[in-house]
Amino acid sequence: MRWIDVRSDTVTHPTPAMRDAMARAEVGDDVYGDDPTVIELESRVAARLGKEAALFVPSGTFGNQLALFTHCRRGDEVVLGDDCHIVWHEGGAAAVIAGVNLRTLASDQGVLDPAAVAARLRCTDDIHEPKTGLVCLENAHSNGRVIPLDNMAAIAAHAHALGVPVHLDGARLFNAATALGVDAARVAAHADSVMICLSKGLAAPVGSMLAGSRDFITAARRKRKLMGGGLRQVGILAAAGLIALDSMTQRLDQDHANARRLAARLDALPGISVMRGQLDINMVWCRLAPEVDTVALMAALTAHGIRANPPEHGMMRFVTHWQITEEDVAKLATAVESGLTV
Questions:
Q1: pTM > 0.85
Q2: Which of 113, 196, 324, 341 is deepest in the core (most CB within 10 A)?
């Protein structure tokens, strides 16, 4: 059976072109700094994001936590939204690796109030207060929303006025750029460092990138080694990353269009309502009515060859990617409908 997997865009398999490139990749030892394919990928990512340098890292969580570890001193505070990926889905790593405190504030579906951020920046010499070491933003947000660039600019202005750097969790930055119709560098412009994932909608099998100033990346490279991220013949993975960067970033609009098609089909069904305000990229978030039998729904999806994550707190998410076709969207909607009417 060919499964239709909409649990996440992390489930994507490498494309045939990626597999071929990986087999032929020219490699070296990246810890020695002589893997030519990694060097090319890092240079091209830095250029696409408008930064001086970039660094290959094993995962998005690794990249975000390496940024915190590099920017901050132990005991610093990091200001960020209470619903962001670093808070919810990175295992409390900030306390273990960087030794920092996460000072969260409420967000409006991923959008932070610049004035509220400014009010939480602590940069005085008061011995009772921790120092603010970093502000973290996320775009596209993992709730499926793209954050307006003027909002990011306003927050960065407050932080930079006090000498506080800004890190951008850009795991799906290219989805955000596609939705906004701008170059990726525009999304990254107000951040001092930015992490992007190659392994989500861009379909590379492994890897993310951390970009920033040359000095920042030099410091991050040393800490990457400390964290166990100094890999060897990474060119095999970087070869897939180059295709992700060149080709897969150009087709994300197809995933977004399929998400909208799915949303339209699901929104017409009884007992399910699509969160239209979170439909900017390749995610469809739905709220299920209390009377929906979620066990029957999940059983129906499985019977139709569909892998989906079960609802949490009455919410369900479906994620499109390069292996989800328009026909798959129709099959998924039909399967959901059958599960709602069991």
A1: yes
A2: 196
